[in-house]
Amino acid sequence: MAAHQDARERLEQVSQLIEGFKTPYGMEMLATLHWVAKEDPAVAEDVEVAIALVHKWSDRKRQLFKPQHLQKAWQCKRHGSAYQSRVGSIYPLCKAN
Q1: How far apart are CA 7 and CA 21, in angstroms?
Q2: How far apart (Å, rounded) are the C-alpha atoms in residues 81 and 51?
Q3: Buried b / exposed e across 76-95, counting CB within 10 Å, b at 16+?
Q4: Which among 30, 46, 49, 51 is least surrounded, fewest beta carbons within 10 Å?
Q5: Is residue 49 within 8 Å of residue 43, measured between CB atoms?
Q6: Residues 9, 35, 32, 75: what is their CA dihedral angle, to the nearest 10 degrees?
Q7: Alpha-carbon span 9 to 6, nearest angstrom
Q8: How many angstroms separate the CA atoms of 67 and 53, rounded?
Q9: Could you tell me the pTM of the whole model?
Q10: Exposure pattern of 16-45 as b/e (b: 16+ CB <10 Å)?
Q11: What is the pLDDT of residues 77-97, one digit of tens each?
């Protein structure tokens, strides 16, 4: 039973983490930001670094992800709710200030 509770809690954390980004576009954007943050820790502190790395990734991503959309996703994940301080290791941009 405890394993089920743990799974439910993790599912709830993920659900909150992706809130507002539950479209294919939003999910790809979050996954892309996560990847660039894993590659360069500076992404967690500087949205311009995040945008530059996403746009450097490929022509498709540069055309698909507008800077203002990336900035909004970065800000939402960086300045998110209090629970995100507990899941920061899952998503580096989700650290509470």
Answers
A1: 21
A2: 23
A3: bbbebeeebeebeeebbbbb
A4: 46
A5: yes
A6: 70
A7: 5
A8: 11
A9: 0.72
A10: ebbeebeeeeeeebbebbbebbeeeeebbe
A11: 776 643 344 444 334 444 333
- Long-range contacts: 64-72, Cβ < 8 Å, 24+? 64/25, 64/28, 65/29, 65/32, 69/29, 70/29, 70/33, 71/47
**What letter represents residue 1's amino acid?**
M
- Give residue 63's identity as a one-letter amino acid code: Q
Question: Distance between CA 47 and CA 75 in Å, rounded?
Answer: 8
Find tokens 């500087």 and name the residue. 46
CA angle centred on 56, ends 22 and 70, rounded to 5°: 30
Neighbours of 12 (CB within 10 A): 11
- For residue 38, how far is the Cα from the chain centroid? 11
User: How do residues 66-78 score in pLDDT, each as one tens digit?
Assistant: 999 999 889 887 7
Q: Cβ(34)–Cβ(78) under 8 Å?
A: no
Q: Tell me, what amino acid is at 25?
A: Y
